[in-house]
Amino acid sequence: MPVPSLVIGIAGGTGAGKTTIAREITSGVDSVTLVPLDNYYEDRSGLPMAEREEINYDHPAAFDWELLRDHLVALCEGRVIEMPEYDFSVHNRTDETTRVEPGEVVIVEGILTLHDAAVRDMLDVKLYVETDADVRIIRRIRRDVVERGRDLEGVVSQYLSTVKPMHEQFVAPTKREADLIIPEGANDTAVGLLRERVHGVVSGEERPEF
Ligand SMILES: Nc1ncnc2c1ncn2[C@@H]1O[C@H](COP(=O)(O)OP(=O)(O)O)[C@@H](O)[C@H]1O
Ligand SMILES: O=c1ccn([C@@H]2O[C@H](COP(=O)(O)O)[C@@H](O)[C@H]2O)c(=O)[nH]1
User: Fold this and answer.
1) Which residue, judged by its Cα, is nearest atom 5 of ligand 2?
2) Which family does the UniProt entry place this protein in (predicted)?
3) Is the pTM of this model over 0.95?
4) Which ipTM did the prediction report?
């Protein structure tokens, strides 16, 4: 099992374009391991749905940081992990896990990827995707209604009560931990430069530090 040549962290607000950037900057790389922070929400199997609906999912306390740290250490050492799966429609992990092997490139992406110091220390490069709040909320409404089984009223009320204030308190401040801030999400120039760099490291021509 290979030890990854490059570990990238991508943070930024909901709907900023983190997943899109992760996909685009690694296109053409043979083996990429994606570690979505969303899969590391705490296991809430002990709580009924009504209580799960009330949880603040944008606060750092909503995540199982210990498991994420353990899994990143394992991947960085070339070991396989059993990654949890998350079902947004029921606000909980599923009963399934996925066997995930370390790729040449490992990407951790999620709103609070740059929050935890131990996680940050495992990243060769730290990116923060900066996209205007109005664009992000429009994307989020579309996505949550179409893909995550929510209604418009619920998305708006969650946004105002927790998503926006937690973004301001916890997500946006992690920008200062980033090596690079990418404006307007997956813009062609940033994606092109990052993609070149990723390919350079994977081919052994460049060092992992950006
Ligand atoms: N640069 C972009 N231009 C237009 N749409 C985009 C762009 N980046 C992302 N999107 C769209 O916005 C939505 C959210 O993007 P995603 O990458 O999933 O965001 P995040 O992972 O930050 O929540 C998706 O439907 C995606 O296709
Ligand atoms: O059960 C849940 C878990 C999370 N959320 C929301 O998801 C986003 C993070 O996902 P992105 O893909 O980065 O948008 C976060 O803002 C949580 O509010 C949820 O609604 N329910």
Assistant:
1) 57
2) Belongs to the uridine kinase family.
3) yes
4) 0.97
